Amino acid sequence: MVMTMTEEFDGHLQELRRGTIVLASLRLLREPGYGYGLLEQLSAAGFPTDSNTLYPLLRRLEKQGYLVSEWNTEEARPRKFYRTSDAGLRLADTLSRDVQAIAAAATKLP
What we know:
This protein is of the alpha+beta class. The chain is 64% helix and 13% strand. It has a single domain (32-108), classed as Orthogonal Bundle (Arc Repressor Mutant, subunit A). It has helices at 5-28, 35-44, 51-63, 86-108, and strands at 33-34, 67-72, 79-84. It has a 3-stranded antiparallel β-sheet. α1 (5-28) packs antiparallel against α4. The model has no long low-confidence stretch (mean pLDDT 91).
């Protein structure tokens, strides 16, 4: 079986993108949002992911104190809205600086 270059690199690309989903989610959830809406926002912003990745991530970030949530039961279908906490804002700022530093360092490599 011959693998294409894309197939060969998919695992590495997925690993790299997994960390960026955390940063993108924290930044996007500065404004409250729910899971499905966040999936659409992430995709539109160039961070495609799927619900099997995103929902466990949201639960983990909430458990770690980087997101807060509340249920909106005013609509026909209850939705859990997430928002980045103060600790999450600090983490997003730190991760943003680190990503910028890594990108700058990578461009200096031969």
